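User: For documentation purposes, I need each entry recorded in a consistent format: the amino acid sequence on its own, followed directly by the corresponding structure tokens. There are two entries in this batch. Please keep commentary to a minimum and don't merge the entries.

Assistant: Recorded as requested. Entry 1:
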Amino acid sequence: MFRSLWRWLLSLDQPFPRKAAASPQNPPCQPEAIPPYRVFSRSLDLVVPAQDLDLVLGPMSVANRAAHDEAWQAFTGALQGWRTKVHLVALDAAARIINAMGTDAGSSTTFTILVDQSGSMRGQNMILAAASTDVACDFIIHLGASVEVLGFTTRSWRGGGSRKRWLFNLRQPRKPGRLCDLLHVIYRDAADRRASTCGSQLRPMLRPDLPKENVDGEAIEWAATRLRTRPEPKKILIVISDGAPVDDSTLLANGPDILDQHLREVVDELQRSKDIDIAAVGIGFDVSQYYKTSRTVRTPEDLGNALIGLIEDTVMARAA
């Protein structure tokens, strides 16, 4: 007994073991890698025609309806002078394209204009994005091409039903991936060849209760999937955005880079595949960090000219 006690007392004088020095066999800890992109649940995601937004968002409140009417009046009336100037720019661009490529310049081309409908786009940005898209549709149709107009946001703030399910699941898995309910909106289908309806089709884009969060990578995948069903051999996707992808619930649960990294991966893959040309216009935000072909405007008023110029550059580059 005393001998065992003595051995124990001696052991108290031994130095504490030290951490092994970093070496190739025992490297220091590395920052945690961003896991592959994943989605917690797709069951609550929706794709809806614009005219059915009431079924998703519910009828607008009195205040929202008044704001919507005011935005529509600006779209149809107050912007007439601005629209005329952009139309003239579009006519000049169309003349250059037709002179270089012939009168059937766009007959083998289909376009998708994909509009970011995040909360920061509400108000002036959205009105001018809609007006610019309207002029661009006329420009594209004048070239003989088809055009589709899509928008993307989320169904609610702070994750919605997907986040509630994750919380009910005791926050498992620990990194759930995308944790919100997507809302993708079809304003104009590429199969619609009418030349005079785009403006009225875009009225729901001005709803003040529509803009929320933006998951750009999945929206681009959706738009590209739709484009690939089109028979035209030349396919062009134009994105209008005013910032990086953001969904607070997803970022808080997974880290700040998950949506940004996914957007980069999606765009890089499209640019490598080369079956779809992708380009973007940024409103007060430098989109060149994501897209090789892009333009950035400082103010929303410059968006129309920039969008027409970007379409012209993309069409001419495709023909070269």
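Entry 2:
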Amino acid sequence: MSTTVNALVEVCDAGADDEELAEAARRLRAELLELDVAGAEPAPGPAGAGPEGAKGGGVMAVAGLLVQFAGHDVLSAVISAIQGWLGRQRSRSVRLTIDSDSIEITGATSAEQARLIELWAARHAGAS
């Protein structure tokens, strides 16, 4: 039996206002709900708040989703969906966190980013 994984998916954009970012998160949520996930709900906390412990400086708007799923295959599908969604966005990135382990995914595809994502996902294969 697979363990349910709780992932925090944060849509980040330095140039977006709270309303734009909330709408972007809603669109990503709709795409994630098409997958075999148990849920994808807005994360508590104000939009526009940076990650906990972040230092001040440039303002990075953030909207989060809590996504629940079971299985490494679903994690791979979630990552693929995020990458596809980012390919259609302007200047956004997504930070994906499982058990305090985060990776930032950008719309730019490169062999190096793909390898980093693969290694990150492999670390969480045993948890699912």
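Summary note for entry 2:
The beta strands are 4-13, 39-42, 61-70, 93-98, 101-106.
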